[in-house]
UniProtKB/TrEMBL annotation:
The lineage of its organism: Bacteria, Pseudomonadati, Pseudomonadota, Gammaproteobacteria, Vibrionales. Belongs to the bacterial flagellin family. It is found in: Secreted; Bacterial flagellum. Flagellin is the subunit protein which polymerizes to form the filaments of bacterial flagella. The keyword Secreted applies. GO terms for molecular function: structural molecule activity. It comes from Veronia pacifica. This is Flagellin. Residues 319-401 form the Flagellin C-terminal domain. One of its GO terms (cellular component) is extracellular region. Residues 11-141 form the Flagellin N-terminal domain. SUPFAM superfamilies: Phase 1 flagellin (SSF64518).
Length: 407
């Protein structure tokens, strides 16, 4: 009786051991076949949670890749259109140089004007039709949009497209230039639209008091009641500076050598409005001063009226075309800067994605060498337990045989 009880206990132990080893063999087999060591929270709860977060981040990066590439495509379309506009302005300049030749008669100038007018129409068509995915890029409707370049909220990059339509402003490339007995020059320009700014490019002569004052009629101002003057100083060399005194006007001065650039901005579309006059006064020794002035829409450069009817008109057109080309180059530089940002963002995303995939692999992927060893170990234990259990079933018979022999 005691032998039967002992045998039943052995069978129970070895049966349980076989089941344990079978489960471990099946688990190792699944991990080897799938290549992943985590299939449920029971395998590694913390590892599973971290793996899920990394999965979310990696999938977000895939979307960010598409966003950045779309942004680059938008910039490439806009850049190509501005490049073509630059080529058109260069052609306009060539025609104006040709029209500046005194040997040409009126009929030749009229022929040149026909081509210039056609080129202006093409400039307008480019600005009105350049689009990406149905979104107009250069007619002012695009404005500023944000690209989601990262995987988390707030990781955006703003893209701003210029408004290059031709009907926004008027350019006067030949402003009136006055000089009085005190050596003051006044450069007057008019027809400024709301939100525009004025530009004067001045080539200096011998200056005395080393200052520039901009006087704006008070009845066109909307910020406060006293605007005073805006002064820009000349340091005796070739550098000009600017100082803001009242209101919300601004005169940044740029340039070197014998020229400088003065702009008056309307930041909130309310600095000046209507068809008012503006004066730029420069005190000199009563000597030389040459200047050209423009009214330019904010952040844009347009040409509404080119003509080469006279040599003087052709000369003004040359100057205006030069200014337009400079401005379009500035716009292309801005686009190139954003393209470089997006390129770096794309490269950074690619590097981060590699690092995230590597980290995720270390967390969830199976160590095949280790798991194969475990699989072999549990298979051997399973087979050994099965063999022992088989032998245990024969113990009663073997004991009877031994007892029979002894008797």
């Amino acid at each position: 009786m005691s032998g039967i009880i002992f045998n039943s206990f052995q069978q129970s132990v070895f049966s349980n051991q076989i089941k344990v080893q079978q489960n471990l063999v099946a688990e190792s087999s699944t991990k080897i076949a799938s290549g992943q060591r985590i299939h449920s929270a029971g395998d590694d709860a913390a590892g599973l949670q971290l793996s899920n977060r990394l999965n979310s981040q990696a999938s977000g990066m895939d979307v960010s890749f598409r966003n950045i590439n779309e942004g680059l495509s938008i910039l490439e379309v806009a850049d190509a259109a501005i490049e073509e506009s630059t080529s058109i302005f260069q052609r306009v300049r060539e025609l104006a140089v040709r029209a500046s030749n005194g040997s040409l008669g009126q009929s030749e100038r009229d022929s040149i004007q026909v081509e210039i007018t056609a080129l202006k129409d093409e400039l307008d068509r480019i600005s009105e039709t350049t689009s990406f995915g149905g979104e107009k890029l250069l007619n002012g409707s695009f404005g500023s949009k944000t690209l989601q370049v990262g995987t988390d909220a707030g990781e955006g990059l703003s893209i701003t497209m210029p408004d290059l339509t031709l009907d926004k402003m008027t350019i006067n490339s030949n402003p009136e230039l006055f000089k009085n007995s005190n050596g003051y020059f006044s450069i007057r320009d008019a027809a400024a639209a709301e939100g525009d700014y004025l530009t004067w490019e001045v080539e200096r002569g011998p200056l005395t008091d080393n200052w520039i004052a901009l006087n704006i009629p008070s009845d066109t101002a909307t910020y406060g009641s006293d605007y005073g003057n805006w002064d820009a100083s000349y340091d005796g060399g070739n550098t000009w500076g600017a100082t803001k005194y009242y209101g919300n006007y601004l005169i940044p001065s740029e340039g070197g050598g014998d020229s400088f650039l003065v702009r008056v901005y309307a930041y909130d579309n309310s600095t000046y409005e209507g068809n008012e006059s503006f004066a730029l006064s420069i005190q000199t020794n009563g000597g030389e001063l040459r200047a050209q002035g423009h009214i330019i829409d904010d952040a844009d450069y347009y040409m509404k009226d080119f003509n080469v009817n006279t040599i003087g008109d052709a000369q003004n057109t040359i100057n205006a075309a030069d200014g337009a080309i400079r401005h379009l180059d500035e716009e292309r530089s801005k686009i190139a800067a954003i393209q470089n940002k997006l390129d770096h963002s794309l490269h950074n995303l690619a590097e981060n994605q590699i690092n995230i995939e590597t980290a995720k692999s270390k967390i969830i992927n199976t160590d095949l060498a280790k798991e194969t060893t475990k699989y072999a170990k549990h298979s051997i234990l399973q087979n050994a337990s099965s063999a022992i259990l088989s032998q245990a079933k024969n113990l009663p018979t073997n004991r009877l045989q031994i007892m029979a022999q002894l008797s």
